[in-house]
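Re-run with default settings, no changes from the original entry. Doing this only to confirm the output is reproducible before filing.
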Amino acid sequence: MVKTRAIPAGPALDWVLIANAARARCFVRDADNGAMREERSFVHPASRLKGAALDHDRGGKVHKSTASTQFAPHTDAHDKEHAAFARELAAFLEEAALAQRYPALSLIASAAFLGELRAHLGPAAHKRLRQDVALDLSAYEGAELERRVTLALGATAAG
């Protein structure tokens, strides 16, 4: 799913966050030539662990005589870790937006993670959000990454 919001372009150096549930990289991107410089990198190793290694907070039951009380339903451990990573990234973006470190933001994230990330964006970061693209580019580097980012952002701007 691709969403584009038309806001006036500020200075040529916008931020692009490329993410999936385990890794994210924030780039400063020159809108004129597509050149990108990595601003910060994030890794969330818990998102890659097997479910059994994460499943330390299970819902439970309490038995009192013949009545039974159940706690909140069990939430998948990976979902909790994805939400925690999304909150970490959103906090970074919000703090930078409040410090006016970027005029506009584009999110390029795996489809499963993009919604989680958008849900946690603060108001200042959300106001600067120009585009979001459901695409996992986390495995690409260098010129190939720049080329794919240009194609992804160009396609959303045109559509």
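The radius of gyration is 19 Å. Residues 6-11, 57-63 have pLDDT under 50 and may be disordered.
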